[in-house]
Amino acid sequence: MVLAADHLIKDSDTFRTKIKEAQALAEQGKLVTFGIVPTQPHTGYGYIKAGNKLNIGFDVSEFVEKPDMPTATQYVSSGEYFWNSGMFMFKASAFLKALEVHAPDIYSVCKKAIEKTEKDLDFVRVDKDIFASCPSDSIDYAVMEKTSEAAMVTLDAGWSDVGSWSSLWETGEKDANGNVTTGDTLLEGTTNSYVNAEHSLVAVIGLEDVVVVETKDAVMVANKKNAEHIKTVVNRLKAEKRPEFEFHREVYRPWGSYDSIDNGGRFKVKRITVKPGEKLSVQMHHHRAEHWVVVSGTANVTIGDETQMLTENESVYIPIGAVHALENPGKIPLELIEVQSGAYLGEDDIVRFSDRYGRSDK
Fold this sequence. Notes:
Number of strands: 26
Shape: globular
GO molecular function: GTP binding; mannose-1-phosphate guanylyltransferase (GTP) activity
Catalytic activity: alpha-D-mannose 1-phosphate + GTP + H(+) = GDP-alpha-D-mannose + diphosphate
Oligomer: single chain
CATH architecture of the largest domain: Alpha-Beta Complex
Pfam families: ManC_GMP_beta-helix, MannoseP_isomer, NTP_transferase
Distance between the termini: 40 Å
Strand content: 35-45%
Strand order of the largest sheet: 16-17-18-25-20-23
CATH class of the largest domain: Alpha Beta
Number of domains: 3
Radius of gyration: 26 Å
CATH superfamily of the largest domain: Spore Coat Polysaccharide Biosynthesis Protein SpsA, Chain A
Helix content: 10-25%
CATH topology of the largest domain: Spore Coat Polysaccharide Biosynthesis Protein SpsA, Chain A
Domain MannoseP isomerase/GMP-like beta-helix: 190-237
Protein name: mannose-1-phosphate guanylyltransferase
Structural class: alpha+beta
Protein backbone atom coordinates (compact mmCIF):
# COMPACT_ATOMS: atom_id res chain seq x y z
CA MET A 1 0.00 0.00 0.00
CA VAL A 2 1.48 3.33 -1.07
CA LEU A 3 -0.01 6.37 0.69
CA ALA A 4 0.92 10.02 0.72
CA ALA A 5 1.50 11.73 4.05
CA ASP A 6 -0.49 14.81 3.03
CA HIS A 7 -3.91 13.36 2.24
CA LEU A 8 -7.04 13.86 4.31
CA ILE A 9 -9.63 11.04 4.23
CA LYS A 10 -12.69 11.72 6.34
CA ASP A 11 -14.62 8.45 5.89
CA SER A 12 -12.15 5.85 7.15
CA ASP A 13 -14.70 3.00 7.09
CA THR A 14 -15.34 3.42 3.36
CA PHE A 15 -11.61 3.71 2.77
CA ARG A 16 -11.00 0.40 4.55
CA THR A 17 -13.63 -1.27 2.36
CA LYS A 18 -11.95 0.05 -0.78
CA ILE A 19 -8.55 -1.12 0.45
CA LYS A 20 -9.94 -4.67 0.63
CA GLU A 21 -11.24 -4.34 -2.94
CA ALA A 22 -7.86 -3.11 -4.11
CA GLN A 23 -6.15 -5.97 -2.29
CA ALA A 24 -8.20 -8.50 -4.24
CA LEU A 25 -7.02 -6.95 -7.51
CA ALA A 26 -3.43 -6.67 -6.32
CA GLU A 27 -3.37 -10.38 -5.46
CA GLN A 28 -4.18 -11.01 -9.14
CA GLY A 29 -1.03 -9.13 -10.14
CA LYS A 30 -2.72 -5.82 -10.88
CA LEU A 31 -1.12 -2.46 -10.12
CA VAL A 32 -4.04 -0.71 -8.47
CA THR A 33 -4.61 3.01 -8.14
CA PHE A 34 -7.43 4.76 -6.30
CA GLY A 35 -9.56 7.08 -8.44
CA ILE A 36 -11.38 9.76 -6.47
CA VAL A 37 -15.00 10.44 -7.41
CA PRO A 38 -14.81 14.16 -8.32
CA THR A 39 -17.04 16.60 -6.49
CA GLN A 40 -16.36 19.47 -8.88
CA PRO A 41 -14.18 20.38 -11.86
CA HIS A 42 -10.63 20.85 -10.57
CA THR A 43 -7.55 21.95 -12.50
CA GLY A 44 -5.10 21.05 -9.74
CA TYR A 45 -5.39 17.26 -10.12
CA GLY A 46 -4.54 14.78 -12.83
CA TYR A 47 -7.38 12.54 -13.99
CA ILE A 48 -7.82 8.82 -14.66
CA LYS A 49 -10.23 7.61 -17.33
CA ALA A 50 -12.01 4.39 -16.43
CA GLY A 51 -11.69 1.55 -18.94
CA ASN A 52 -13.40 -1.83 -19.03
CA LYS A 53 -15.41 -2.83 -15.96
CA LEU A 54 -13.83 -5.61 -13.94
CA ASN A 55 -15.43 -7.77 -11.27
CA ILE A 56 -13.95 -5.23 -8.88
CA GLY A 57 -13.06 -1.79 -10.18
CA PHE A 58 -11.96 -0.91 -13.71
CA ASP A 59 -9.09 -1.24 -16.08
CA VAL A 60 -7.33 2.07 -16.58
CA SER A 61 -8.02 3.56 -20.01
CA GLU A 62 -5.62 6.50 -19.66
CA PHE A 63 -3.95 8.93 -17.30
CA VAL A 64 -4.34 12.59 -18.25
CA GLU A 65 -2.50 15.68 -17.06
CA LYS A 66 -4.03 18.52 -15.07
CA PRO A 67 -6.61 19.99 -17.47
CA ASP A 68 -7.85 23.52 -18.03
CA MET A 69 -11.25 24.38 -16.56
CA PRO A 70 -13.39 23.67 -19.67
CA THR A 71 -11.75 20.26 -20.06
CA ALA A 72 -12.10 19.49 -16.34
CA THR A 73 -15.80 20.38 -16.56
CA GLN A 74 -16.20 18.00 -19.49
CA TYR A 75 -14.41 15.23 -17.61
CA VAL A 76 -16.64 15.53 -14.56
CA SER A 77 -19.83 15.69 -16.64
CA SER A 78 -18.93 12.50 -18.51
CA GLY A 79 -18.74 10.38 -15.35
CA GLU A 80 -15.81 8.48 -16.87
CA TYR A 81 -12.98 10.41 -15.23
CA PHE A 82 -11.72 10.36 -11.67
CA TRP A 83 -9.15 12.40 -9.80
CA ASN A 84 -5.74 10.77 -9.63
CA SER A 85 -5.12 10.34 -5.89
CA GLY A 86 -1.54 9.10 -6.16
CA MET A 87 -2.39 6.18 -3.84
CA PHE A 88 -1.55 2.64 -4.93
CA MET A 89 -1.69 -1.00 -3.94
CA PHE A 90 0.29 -3.81 -5.55
CA LYS A 91 2.50 -6.76 -4.81
CA ALA A 92 6.10 -5.66 -4.47
CA SER A 93 7.09 -8.37 -6.95
CA ALA A 94 4.55 -7.14 -9.52
CA PHE A 95 5.71 -3.55 -9.24
CA LEU A 96 9.40 -4.44 -9.45
CA LYS A 97 8.74 -6.54 -12.54
CA ALA A 98 6.91 -3.64 -14.20
CA LEU A 99 9.60 -1.17 -13.14
CA GLU A 100 12.34 -3.35 -14.62
CA VAL A 101 10.45 -3.52 -17.93
CA HIS A 102 9.29 0.08 -18.27
CA ALA A 103 11.96 2.04 -16.36
CA PRO A 104 15.11 -0.12 -16.32
CA ASP A 105 17.36 2.85 -15.55
CA ILE A 106 15.45 3.58 -12.33
CA TYR A 107 15.28 -0.11 -11.44
CA SER A 108 19.02 -0.58 -11.91
CA VAL A 109 20.06 2.39 -9.76
CA CYS A 110 17.61 1.53 -6.98
CA LYS A 111 18.78 -2.07 -6.91
CA LYS A 112 22.40 -0.97 -6.52
CA ALA A 113 21.46 1.50 -3.77
CA ILE A 114 19.52 -1.18 -1.88
CA GLU A 115 22.44 -3.60 -2.12
CA LYS A 116 24.49 -1.12 -0.08
CA THR A 117 21.82 -0.48 2.54
CA GLU A 118 22.88 0.42 6.07
CA LYS A 119 20.76 0.22 9.19
CA ASP A 120 20.70 2.31 12.35
CA LEU A 121 18.02 1.69 14.95
CA ASP A 122 14.68 1.55 13.09
CA PHE A 123 16.00 3.27 9.97
CA VAL A 124 17.04 1.58 6.74
CA ARG A 125 19.27 3.91 4.74
CA VAL A 126 20.08 3.27 1.09
CA ASP A 127 23.41 4.39 -0.31
CA LYS A 128 23.06 8.16 -0.65
CA ASP A 129 25.51 8.71 -3.50
CA ILE A 130 24.15 5.89 -5.65
CA PHE A 131 20.52 6.86 -5.04
CA ALA A 132 21.29 10.50 -5.91
CA SER A 133 22.09 9.34 -9.46
CA CYS A 134 18.61 7.84 -9.91
CA PRO A 135 16.53 9.50 -12.65
CA SER A 136 13.66 11.60 -11.30
CA ASP A 137 10.26 10.44 -12.52
CA SER A 138 6.81 9.86 -11.07
CA ILE A 139 5.32 6.41 -10.68
CA ASP A 140 2.63 7.41 -13.19
CA TYR A 141 5.10 8.34 -15.92
CA ALA A 142 7.58 5.55 -15.19
CA VAL A 143 5.17 2.64 -14.81
CA MET A 144 1.42 3.20 -14.56
CA GLU A 145 0.94 4.87 -17.96
CA LYS A 146 2.90 2.10 -19.69
CA THR A 147 1.80 -1.11 -18.01
CA SER A 148 -1.12 -3.23 -19.19
CA GLU A 149 -1.78 -4.29 -15.59
CA ALA A 150 -3.06 -0.93 -14.31
CA ALA A 151 -6.43 -1.10 -12.55
CA MET A 152 -8.51 1.43 -10.63
CA VAL A 153 -10.78 1.25 -7.61
CA THR A 154 -13.07 4.26 -7.22
CA LEU A 155 -13.13 6.06 -3.88
CA ASP A 156 -15.74 8.43 -2.46
CA ALA A 157 -14.63 8.95 1.14
CA GLY A 158 -14.21 12.68 1.69
CA TRP A 159 -10.71 12.75 0.20
CA SER A 160 -8.64 15.93 0.06
CA ASP A 161 -5.09 16.46 -1.10
CA VAL A 162 -3.48 18.82 1.40
CA GLY A 163 -0.18 18.83 -0.45
CA SER A 164 -0.12 22.58 -0.94
CA TRP A 165 -0.31 25.63 1.31
CA SER A 166 -3.54 26.69 -0.37
CA SER A 167 -5.15 23.35 0.42
CA LEU A 168 -4.11 23.68 4.06
CA TRP A 169 -6.08 26.92 4.11
CA GLU A 170 -9.05 25.26 2.40
CA THR A 171 -9.23 22.40 4.92
CA GLY A 172 -8.21 24.35 8.03
CA GLU A 173 -10.39 25.88 10.75
CA LYS A 174 -10.93 29.55 9.89
CA ASP A 175 -11.48 32.55 12.12
CA ALA A 176 -14.12 35.24 11.55
CA ASN A 177 -11.94 36.83 8.84
CA GLY A 178 -11.36 33.59 6.97
CA ASN A 179 -7.80 33.15 8.24
CA VAL A 180 -6.12 29.89 9.22
CA THR A 181 -3.23 30.37 11.64
CA THR A 182 -0.71 28.11 13.35
CA GLY A 183 1.84 29.15 15.96
CA ASP A 184 2.60 32.61 17.33
CA THR A 185 0.82 34.96 14.92
CA LEU A 186 -0.69 38.44 15.02
CA LEU A 187 -3.03 39.47 12.20
CA GLU A 188 -4.41 42.97 11.67
CA GLY A 189 -6.72 43.81 8.78
CA THR A 190 -5.86 40.51 7.09
CA THR A 191 -8.40 38.19 5.45
CA ASN A 192 -8.64 34.77 3.80
CA SER A 193 -5.00 33.96 4.49
CA TYR A 194 -2.88 31.09 5.79
CA VAL A 195 -0.17 32.02 8.31
CA ASN A 196 2.16 29.43 9.86
CA ALA A 197 4.72 30.53 12.46
CA GLU A 198 7.08 27.80 13.61
CA HIS A 199 9.89 29.68 15.31
CA SER A 200 9.18 33.41 15.71
CA LEU A 201 6.25 35.78 16.07
CA VAL A 202 4.78 36.55 12.63
CA ALA A 203 2.70 39.73 12.18
CA VAL A 204 0.65 40.22 9.00
CA ILE A 205 -1.00 43.59 8.36
CA GLY A 206 -3.47 44.65 5.68
CA LEU A 207 -3.17 41.68 3.34
CA GLU A 208 -5.65 39.27 1.80
CA ASP A 209 -5.38 35.88 0.12
CA VAL A 210 -1.75 35.33 1.12
CA VAL A 211 0.29 32.43 2.43
CA VAL A 212 2.97 33.25 5.01
CA VAL A 213 5.16 30.42 6.30
CA GLU A 214 8.00 30.95 8.77
CA THR A 215 10.41 28.16 9.76
CA LYS A 216 13.87 28.00 11.27
CA ASP A 217 15.30 27.68 7.76
CA ALA A 218 13.45 30.30 5.72
CA VAL A 219 10.37 32.52 5.31
CA MET A 220 7.94 32.39 2.38
CA VAL A 221 5.34 35.03 1.50
CA ALA A 222 3.11 34.33 -1.50
CA ASN A 223 -0.22 35.14 -3.03
CA LYS A 224 -2.44 32.16 -2.28
CA LYS A 225 -3.15 31.44 -5.91
CA ASN A 226 0.59 31.39 -6.71
CA ALA A 227 1.77 29.42 -3.68
CA GLU A 228 2.38 26.28 -5.76
CA HIS A 229 5.19 28.15 -7.53
CA ILE A 230 7.31 27.22 -4.52
CA LYS A 231 8.56 24.40 -6.76
CA THR A 232 10.20 27.02 -8.98
CA VAL A 233 11.87 28.57 -5.95
CA VAL A 234 13.18 25.17 -4.85
CA ASN A 235 14.61 24.57 -8.32
CA ARG A 236 16.37 27.93 -8.14
CA LEU A 237 17.81 27.10 -4.73
CA LYS A 238 19.16 23.88 -6.22
CA ALA A 239 20.60 25.58 -9.31
CA GLU A 240 22.25 28.29 -7.21
CA LYS A 241 23.64 25.65 -4.81
CA ARG A 242 22.10 27.39 -1.83
CA PRO A 243 22.66 25.50 1.45
CA GLU A 244 18.94 25.82 2.26
CA PHE A 245 18.21 23.31 -0.51
CA GLU A 246 20.08 20.45 1.16
CA PHE A 247 20.58 21.33 4.82
CA HIS A 248 18.14 22.07 7.63
CA ARG A 249 18.98 24.06 10.73
CA GLU A 250 17.64 21.29 12.93
CA VAL A 251 19.02 17.82 12.16
CA TYR A 252 17.96 14.50 13.67
CA ARG A 253 20.40 11.69 14.43
CA PRO A 254 19.94 8.21 15.98
CA TRP A 255 21.22 9.57 19.31
CA GLY A 256 19.09 12.76 19.34
CA SER A 257 19.31 16.04 17.43
CA TYR A 258 21.16 19.32 17.00
CA ASP A 259 20.01 22.82 16.11
CA SER A 260 22.51 25.20 14.49
CA ILE A 261 21.44 28.39 16.22
CA ASP A 262 24.22 30.74 15.00
CA ASN A 263 27.29 30.80 12.76
CA GLY A 264 29.94 33.13 11.41
CA GLY A 265 33.22 33.11 9.53
CA ARG A 266 35.12 30.97 12.04
CA PHE A 267 32.48 29.83 14.50
CA LYS A 268 29.26 27.84 14.74
CA VAL A 269 26.91 27.44 17.71
CA LYS A 270 24.69 24.37 18.15
CA ARG A 271 22.14 23.28 20.69
CA ILE A 272 22.62 19.54 21.09
CA THR A 273 20.08 17.14 22.60
CA VAL A 274 21.12 13.58 23.46
CA LYS A 275 18.44 11.04 24.36
CA PRO A 276 18.78 9.11 27.65
CA GLY A 277 21.19 6.21 27.35
CA GLU A 278 22.48 7.27 23.93
CA LYS A 279 26.06 7.97 22.89
CA LEU A 280 27.70 9.85 20.03
CA SER A 281 30.52 8.20 18.10
CA VAL A 282 34.14 8.25 19.27
CA GLN A 283 35.46 10.91 16.90
CA MET A 284 37.91 13.67 16.12
CA HIS A 285 38.07 16.77 13.92
CA HIS A 286 41.01 18.04 11.87
CA HIS A 287 40.01 21.69 11.61
CA ARG A 288 37.90 22.69 14.60
CA ALA A 289 37.96 22.86 18.37
CA GLU A 290 34.80 22.60 20.45
CA HIS A 291 33.50 24.01 23.73
CA TRP A 292 30.61 22.22 25.44
CA VAL A 293 28.41 23.81 28.12
CA VAL A 294 25.81 21.59 29.79
CA VAL A 295 22.38 23.25 30.02
CA SER A 296 20.46 20.35 31.58
CA GLY A 297 21.01 16.69 32.28
CA THR A 298 24.26 14.81 32.77
CA ALA A 299 27.10 14.37 30.26
CA ASN A 300 29.73 11.67 30.32
CA VAL A 301 32.62 13.19 28.31
CA THR A 302 35.69 11.31 27.13
CA ILE A 303 38.71 13.20 25.76
CA GLY A 304 41.66 11.01 24.91
CA ASP A 305 42.13 8.60 27.83
CA GLU A 306 40.29 10.74 30.38
CA THR A 307 36.58 10.58 31.22
CA GLN A 308 34.68 13.11 33.29
CA MET A 309 31.08 13.69 34.35
CA LEU A 310 29.54 17.12 33.73
CA THR A 311 26.27 18.49 35.08
CA GLU A 312 24.36 21.77 34.64
CA ASN A 313 26.49 24.90 34.13
CA GLU A 314 29.72 22.91 33.76
CA SER A 315 31.82 23.03 30.61
CA VAL A 316 34.71 21.35 28.81
CA TYR A 317 37.13 22.24 25.99
CA ILE A 318 38.00 19.80 23.18
CA PRO A 319 41.15 20.78 21.24
CA ILE A 320 41.60 20.29 17.49
CA GLY A 321 42.59 16.69 16.78
CA ALA A 322 41.51 15.34 20.18
CA VAL A 323 39.68 12.00 20.12
CA HIS A 324 36.48 12.46 22.09
CA ALA A 325 33.00 11.08 22.80
CA LEU A 326 29.78 12.23 24.45
CA GLU A 327 27.25 10.06 26.28
CA ASN A 328 24.05 10.67 28.23
CA PRO A 329 24.06 8.21 31.15
CA GLY A 330 21.01 9.81 32.78
CA LYS A 331 17.25 9.31 32.71
CA ILE A 332 16.38 12.70 31.14
CA PRO A 333 17.51 14.29 27.85
CA LEU A 334 20.94 15.90 27.92
CA GLU A 335 21.00 19.43 26.49
CA LEU A 336 24.21 21.31 25.88
CA ILE A 337 25.51 24.25 23.89
CA GLU A 338 28.39 23.50 21.55
CA VAL A 339 30.60 26.31 20.25
CA GLN A 340 32.81 25.29 17.34
CA SER A 341 35.77 27.40 16.25
CA GLY A 342 38.25 26.86 13.46
CA ALA A 343 39.15 27.42 9.82
CA TYR A 344 36.67 24.85 8.47
CA LEU A 345 33.37 23.93 10.13
CA GLY A 346 31.78 21.56 7.61
CA GLU A 347 29.87 18.51 8.84
CA ASP A 348 32.25 16.30 6.84
CA ASP A 349 35.20 17.20 9.09
CA ILE A 350 34.70 14.14 11.26
CA VAL A 351 36.61 10.89 11.66
CA ARG A 352 34.65 8.20 13.52
CA PHE A 353 36.66 5.53 15.31
CA SER A 354 33.73 3.60 16.76
CA ASP A 355 29.98 4.07 16.59
CA ARG A 356 27.08 2.03 17.97
CA TYR A 357 25.00 2.95 14.91
CA GLY A 358 27.44 1.46 12.39
CA ARG A 359 28.81 4.76 11.05
CA SER A 360 32.50 4.37 12.04
CA ASP A 361 35.21 5.15 9.50
CA LYS A 362 37.97 3.07 11.11
